Each structure stands twice: as structure tokens, then as C-alpha cells.
Amino acid sequence: MTAWIAFSVNGRAVDVEVDPMRRLADVLRDDLGLTGTKIGCDAGDCGACTVRLDGRQVCACLVPVAQAAGGDVRTVEGLAAGDGAPGGEPREFADLAALQRAFLEAGAAQCGICTPGMLMAADDLLERRPAPTDAEVRDALGGVLCRCTGYRKIVEAVATTGVGDGIGRPTREPSPAAGGAVGARLPKVDGIGCVDGTARFGADERPEGMLAVRAVRSPHARARFTIGDLDALHARHPGLVKVLVAADIPGQNRYGIYPTGKDQPVLAEGLVRHRGEAVCALVAEEAVLEAIDDAEVPITWEPLPPIFHGKSWAKPDAGSRRAPSWDVLSRGPGHEPSRHSSTGLTRAILFPGSRRWGCCAPRCCSRCCAPPLAPRASIRWTHSARTRWGGQP
Ligand code: FES
Ligand code: FES
User: Fold this and answer.
1) Best substitution site from 24, 49, 365 to test ligand 1's pocket, by max atoms within 8 Å of Cβ?
2) CATH number of 212-325
3) Contact 65/171 with Cβ under 8 angstroms?
4) C-beta of 110 in contact with ligand 2 (< 6 A)
5) How far apart are CA 328 and CA 313, in angstroms?
6) Which-ligand-closest: CA of 190?
7) Do the domains at 1-175+185-201 and 212-325 have one common CATH topology?
8) Domain residue spans in the chain?
9) Is 143 near ligand 1, meaning CB less than 6 Å away?
């Protein structure tokens, strides 16, 4: 069922015919082309989709568009002066809002996937508190996760936006002369696109005829599983092109941040070790994927006791083939909240033998942490030999 929903976006009146329960984030991105609003988790955990609705910061992935009816939505495209045309070119530095310039000057935007959400949360704060303290900044931005910056530069950018000349620092630092770059601050080459919403990530491109992939994820913290005969699923959904399983992954079925640390399977092999682990991937056009319920995929689960701390690996029933190097992020009973950094996160866990830290935020669901926050993707246009990397525009 669809309905006409009217509201304003960045000061412009819009009227869209959509399912009223459609997520505001999807309407902004897919129907209105405002891809500056990013989607990290699609579940209210990461804050990448933060926009302002009638002045308040909200997670656009949690808001049904009907809730915006008659309201005023502000996105990252509306922060700077001038026309925030979808898919447009980055603005000039001088046209950016003071907050955006402060982000560039402080180096607060790295990959840029969290930046629109950070900016909108900060915009909300600065309207209420023009000269916030660091603590107020951390509190106001606590719902937006960043995997790149360590937060310090973001806090600095927001806290200095209203200081002195009004933009933190007066001008963008010029590139140093040839031979003088070592030790100098360099303007980020794609920085403006990161702060004005024009940077294009993998999920922002929709080449015609593109197929989509949807991972079917584990509802269990730990379980064995088998995937049954897929013929009935294909028969029910003729548009389903392929169901990828672990055996379809070419080469090594592992990924990780470092070449020596590829300790996560792309698709689980008979055993899942955290809720949200991908077990298979459906390939089809988006409308076909949306019509498929996870429950239709013939997966038989055998739930196992979850493992909450390192000592559990030693138990005979742990059932892991590579326990010492596998880190599982989970909030077990009895975890005492303890602040460990300026991030606003409450707990960090390092499992014995693990090579990386995981954060356990108050709303941790393992979807933000176990896979990258930024949905990495690459699109290659063979006709133009152009390659687009999603996570690093
Ligand atoms: S995408 Fe909305 S909170 Fe993560
Ligand atoms: S800059 Fe924050 S996630 Fe990359």
C-alpha cells in the first residue's frame, strides 16, 4: 500500500508516493537521490544515517517516512550554502558551513562514511550549545560510531567551530610547494565531498541492470547449521539468480583488515560464532530480494552455548577449529560498564590470541563491529576502465 507523503527536505517541499512504513533513509537515498545520508547497519546502531527531523537528530533508518509527514528534514546536503543537488560536484571550500570547514581543518573526516551523521548530530548540538565543551560534544555525538578517526579530531572540530573567527581556523591550508610536504598538513584531496555529501560510495551507485546481494545472517550467537536443497526456493522466486554459499568463494574463504589477519570467513562454513555472521548470500534484483523472507531459506540450525570470554575456548565443547585467533564480540551477562576512551563506548574486549580489539557499545549487535561499518563495495565499469571503491571514495 502506498500513500503520498509531503514534507520538506533542506527547505524544499517534496511529495513522494511510497509505502508509509518505508524507512526515511531509503526514501532520502533511493527516491530523492540524497545519498549523502549513509547507511551503515540499517538497525539504529551506528548513527551513520543521522539526519535532523524537526530539529531533532534521528536515525533515518529507524524512522518510517510517514513520521516525517508535514515535517522538516535536514540532511548533510543542506548544511552548506547553495544548491545541494543530488550527485552534484563538491562545493567550493568557501561555500561550506563553518562546521564542515572545521571538519576539514581538523582532519575529522577520513573515509567519510560516518561524517554526514557526525555533522548532523553536531549541527543539532551547536544550535543548542554554540560553544560546547568536549564532554558535551562527546555526549551529543555518542550515537554515531566512527571506525577511522579515533574521535579526537571530530571532537576538536566540533568544539572549535564556534570559537574565535567562527570557523575554528580561518582558511584551508594550502598545499605545500613541491618538496615541502614532509611534516606539513595536507588538505585531504576528497575531503570536501566527505563533508558536503557528494562523495560517492559503493552503495551510492546504481548502474542499470545491477544485481544486488543480500546476506542471510545467523540469528544465533553460536550454532552449527546446514543448508538444504535450494530448488524449492528458486522455484518460488524465479528471479533469484544464485544463492552463494561458502563453497562458492574462490580462493581462501577468509577476510580481515591485514594480509596476515584474515581470520573471518566470508560465508560461514557450518558453524557460526556470532549473531549476524553471514551464512549465505542471495543474488537477484532488489525487488526479488525484498520478497524473500530469511525463513524461506532452508537452513537447519543447531544452537550451541554462546562463548562470552576467552576461558570458554578451552572447554571441550567449544567446538571451534581456530578458537585462539577468532574474536567474538558479545555482551555477556555480568559485563560491568566501564569507560575506556573518549569514544563513549563502554567496554572493549580482547580475546586471547586475537589480533584486534572489538568495541562493545551499549547497543552492540556485532553488526557494526564484526563487519566494517562502511559497507565496502567496488563497482567496475569495464567500458571506461573506471573502478570505484566503495569504502575509500
Ligand atoms: S544505518 Fe541507521 S543507525 Fe546505522
Ligand atoms: S571517518 Fe568515521 S568511519 Fe571513517
Assistant:
1) 49
2) 3.90.1170.50
3) no
4) yes
5) 11
6) 2
7) no
8) 1-175+185-201, 212-325
9) no
CA of 62 to the centre of ligand 1 (A): 8
Architecture of domain 1-175+185-201: Roll (3.10)
Q: How far apart are CA 101 and CA 287, in angstroms?
A: 40
**Closest ligand 2 atom, residue 373 Cα:** 3
| Closest to 74 measured CA to CA, from 114, 127, 19 | 127
Calpha distance 349→40 (Å, rounded): 22
For residue 148, the CA-to-ligand 1 centroid distance in Å is: 17
114 lines ligand 2 (CB under 6 A): yes
Q: Is 60 in the pocket of ligand 2 (CB under 6 A)?
A: no
- Walk along the chain (393 residues) and give the pLDDT tens digit of each residue: 899 999 999 999 999 999 999 999 999 999 999 999 999 888 898 999 999 999 999 999 999 999 999 999 999 999 987 655 555 778 888 888 999 989 988 889 998 999 999 999 999 999 999 999 999 999 999 999 998 888 999 999 999 886 654 444 444 556 677 788 888 877 788 899 999 999 888 788 777 777 888 899 999 989 999 999 999 999 999 999 999 999 999 988 988 766 777 778 999 999 998 888 999 999 998 889 989 999 999 999 999 988 776 665 555 555 444 433 333 333 333 333 332 222 222 223 333 222 233 333 333 333 344 344 555 555 555 554 444 433 333
Q: What secondary structure, in 3-state letters, does 209-241 show? A: CCCEEEEEECCCCCEEEEECCCHHHHHHCCCCC
